[in-house]
Structure formats: structure tokens, C-alpha cells
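Morning. Coffee machine broken again, so started the prediction first thing and wrote up yesterday's gels while waiting. Chain of 158 residues, entered below exactly as on the submission form.
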Amino acid sequence: MFQKIRTSIINGTRPVYLAGLSSTLFFAVGAQKIDAHAGLFARHAIYTGAFFLCMWIACRLFAGSLNRRLALEGVCTEDAGDMVYTFVIYLELIKHVVGVSFTLGWIAGVMFCWDYLGHQMFLIPAGASLAVSMVAFLVTYGIASFVDNLHWPGAEDE
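Came back before lunch.
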């Protein structure tokens, strides 16, 4: 019973719906504080459009990574059991949260290097930025590789 419900939800739900819902909420919350000023309203509408595109792209990427991960597990979306699907979602959420966190940390680290070392000659802040970039890349790549090697225990593992 739950398999049919989940399959119909997965097949009937598109990333554009989730992006549209989140963009509508974003617009509604922001529009509460606009006092009929046309310039602010237009700017908020443009920001909402950009937010929609970013959310749509993020949802598409996440759906694609779920399908890729399910293929690594040897099942398709319709055939995956509830526990396997939950396991795959959990692993992909871990990878995405770590990726976003380290991306933000990388941006902050590079900005710190240029702010703190910017008064010195060009190669010093550039080298420090490269070091921060390499550390962030290696840690993120290592975690993603580790998570990609985790698999749901199948019949051959028992």
C-alpha cells in the first residue's frame, strides 16, 4: 500500500511544484512589509523569480542525485523499498549539507585571506586562498567519496 502511494507521489511531483511553492512563500512573506512602493514590489518580484530558478535547479539536482544513488544500489524508484529509499535520501542529504556548508566556509575562508593578507604582495593572499580551496575540496571530496561507498546491506551482504 505504501509503495503505491510513494510511487504516485514521486511520479506526480515535479521539482517545479516544490520550487513554485517555496517561491510563493518567499514572495508572500516579503510582500507583507512592502507599503505599495512600486520599485520595491518590482525588485521583490525579480528576487522571487531568481529564487524560483535557484530552487528549481536545486530540486532537479537533488532528484537526479537520488536517481543516481538508487541506480548504485541496484534498484529503480518504483522498485525501491521504503527503507532503501529512506537510506538513499538520508545519504544524499548528508552529502548536500556537507557540500553547502563547506562551500560557504570556502567562500568565507577565501574572503578572509584577501581581507587579512590583501595588503601584502599578490602571491601571498593568492597562495593562502589556494591552500584554503585545496583543504575545502579535499575534505568535501573525501566525505562524498566515503558516503558514496556506503550501501544498503543486500542479500549478498548478509
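The radius of gyration is 21 Å. Going to sketch it on the whiteboard this afternoon.
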